[in-house]
Amino acid sequence: MSAATRIGRRAIRTTNAFVNFCMLVIILLLLAFGSYAMWDSSQLHGAASAVNYERYRPDLENDADSFAELQAINPDVFAWLTVYGTNIDYPMVQGQDNIRYVNTDARGRHALSGAIFLDFRNSPHFTDFSSIVYGHHMENYVMFGELELFEDKSYFDARRYGMLYFDGQERGLEFFAFVHADAYDTTVFRARIVAPEEQQAYLDMLLEMATHTRTDMSVTIEDRIVLLSTCSPTITNGRDILLGRITSEVQDNPFPAEQTNNVVEILRIDTVTNWWFEIDLLVQISIATLILALVVLVIVVVCRKRRKGDIS
Predict the structure, then answer these.
(1) pLDDT tens figures, 224-243
(2) To 5 degrees, how large is the angle CA 97–CA 101–CA 104?
(3) Pick from 177, 174, 201, 178: nearest CA to 190
(4) What is the pTM of this model?
(5) Rounded CA gap, 173 and 164, in Å?
(6) CB 71 within 8 A of CB 7
(7) 272: pLDDT confidence band, cut at 50, 70 and 90?
(8) In angstroms, rounded to a whole number, what is the distance separating the alpha carbons of residues 173 and 171?
(9) Nearest by Cα to 296 from 105, 5, 28
């Protein structure tokens, strides 16, 4: 075998080894990135689930102190919002601006899912004619991710009531319209509308914009209305808004079983999707090490076969 042939074969083996090493690095990076993405998504949606706040839900009959416990953790907590037949069942906060709770949860901790919060310009006693409540649109129907479903007429028709707790009392919510709006439309996102003629013009505008309304409801400027607003997943800078009015009568939740099933189904999906993060850390490390070892073993075997082929 000539020297040139040996040098050529050595160059080929070196090139193959370098290519295999690069492939291994790429595989490991993809595996690490994919694992991190799954972990990050699991953490984000898990932190935003209403299940995390169940223990603080105000129950005037059994435990009036549960809500006070959350207020002791974060004094900005002042109300509780429930939309019957959905997973929207959260404490409500109000900051000194509309930025703080975009990335801060109801406990006052940093969280990309944020919190359900009232516009800082509105009264926390809901004495304004219109009050604007914001929440992130998120997957798995957490936070305000379910509001987009109200665009479906049958879904809107079936979910008429909710509950709003503030100032130590429960009030009813009766939803009367669903609206699409632009995030920068200042004619929609107004607070503290005082003059009766402006209130009437504002209400007329919302009803005219509405995709759905309830023909058997008559909302007037004597009512106090609430706008539940979130990002629209289909329109750039779009907002989905569910409009309701505050009532003195609290309706019974007609969907207790369905609401529970929704939560269970979401958790089941999360469990299947993110099973990796439900097992012990040592088991995770062992499985990851085994996978990496198998990948390295396959690459080594392939390299050896190629070298034997070159020699022969």
Answers:
(1) 999 999 999 888 899 999 99
(2) 140
(3) 201
(4) 0.72
(5) 7
(6) no
(7) very low
(8) 7
(9) 28
